[in-house]
Amino acid sequence: MLVYVFETKEWERRYLTEVVKDIELKFLEDRLNKDTVHKYKDAEVVIVFVDSRVDREVIDQLPKLRLIITRSTGYDHIDVKYAMEKGIVVCNVPDYASITVAEYTIALMLTLSRRLKETVQRTSRGTFSREGLSGFDLSGKTLGVIGTGRIGKYVIKLAHAFDMRIFAYDLVEDKSLVKNYHVEYVELERLLKESDIITIHVPYTPQTHHLINVGNINLLKPTAMLINTARGPVVETKALVKALKEGKLLGGVALDVFEGEEALIEDAYLDRSFSSDMLQNSLLVSYLAKQERVIITPHNAYNTTDALFRMLRSVVENLRAFLEGKPKNVVHDH
C-alpha cells in the first residue's frame, strides 16, 4: 500500500521510518491541495496536517484513495462528508494534545491577567517601572468554558486548582465535572454575560461558525477576557475589532487560532492564493496583534515535544488499525 505523508519535518521522517518498516511511506514537504494533487494520483493513503486542503476537488483526483489520516484533532481542512460518500475513511488523533492545549490556555490567561506582554516589552526596552502594570488574580473569578470535551475538561481541572467559579456551555453535560469541580452548566447567553474570562474549546462546524459574533459580543462584561485556542472561525474577527475599539474586552484577548491564519502562518501568502475575505481577516488580525491588550500566537498551543510524539504514535496506530480492518479514531460529518 502506497502511503504519502505530507507536510513532514525531518524528525517526523526519522521517527516514522524507524517504527513503520513494513509499509511504503513517501515523505513530502508539500501540502496536499488542488495545486499539488496531480503529483500523487496513485495514493492509497494520505497522511496530512492542518495546512493541507483535502476537499472535493482533491478527492476526485485520487481514484485509489482509501484512507485519510490527519495529524491533528481538528479536521475542518477535510471534506469528511464527501470522503464518506466515496467510501474513504477519515481518521484524526483526538487526544494527543488535550492537556497540552489546556496548559497553554491557562498560560494565556495568566499572561493577560498579569500583563506579561507589556511587562516584558517594557523591560526589554530597559525600563523597569511598575507603573500601569497592575493585574488581577484568577482566584475567585468566574471562568466560562465553551465546550467541555477533552480539552475543556482539562482546562476546568486546572482552573479549579486556581479556585475559580466555573460556568460551562455544551450540548451535552458532563456530570463528572459538576460533581468533581462544581461546574455549573448554563446557557451561552448567561455565560457570556456573567463570566470574567471566556475560553473556547469547541470544534469548528457549521453550527459553531461565528459562535462569538458582532451580535452577542456586546453581552460580555466590559472587563471580560476572551481566549480562543479552538478554531479561528468560531470567533468573528470583526466582532473583536469592534469590541476593542469601543473600549471593551479590557481583560484582554488571546488568540492562538484566528480567521485568516492560513495566509499568515509560515509566510504562506508567498506561494498560495487566498480569497479576499481571508486576506481581509488576515489584515484585521495584524491590526489586533498591535493592540496592547491582545496576544496572537501562531496556532502553537499543541506544540510540545511530548504532544508531537503522542501524535505520531496515534497516527501509526490509526494506520495499522485500518490495515487490520478495524479502523479507529474515525471521524464523521457533523
UniProtKB/TrEMBL annotation:
Signal sequence range: none
Example GO molecular function: (S)-2-hydroxyglutarate dehydrogenase activity
CDD domains: LDH_like_1
Alphabetical GO biological process terms: L-serine biosynthetic process
Keywords: NAD, Oxidoreductase
Pfam families found in the cross-reference section: 2-Hacid_dh (PF00389), 2-Hacid_dh_C (PF02826)
PROSITE patterns, per database record: D_2_HYDROXYACID_DH_1 (PS00065), D_2_HYDROXYACID_DH_2 (PS00670), D_2_HYDROXYACID_DH_3 (PS00671)
InterPro entries per record: D-isomer_2_OHA_DH_cat_dom, D-isomer_DH_CS, D-isomer_DH_CS1, D-isomer_DH_NAD-bd, D-LDH-like, NAD(P)-bd_dom_sf
Domain D-isomer specific 2-hydroxyacid dehydrogenase catalytic: 5-331
Superkingdom as given in the UniProt entry: Bacteria
Family annotation (SUPFAM superfamilies): Formate/glycerate dehydrogenase catalytic domain-like, NAD(P)-binding Rossmann-fold domains
Domain D-isomer specific 2-hydroxyacid dehydrogenase NAD-binding, residue spans: 106-301
Protein name: Hydroxyacid dehydrogenase
Organism of derivation: Thermocrinis ruber
The organism's taxonomic lineage, starting at the top: Bacteria, Pseudomonadati, Aquificota, Aquificia, Aquificales
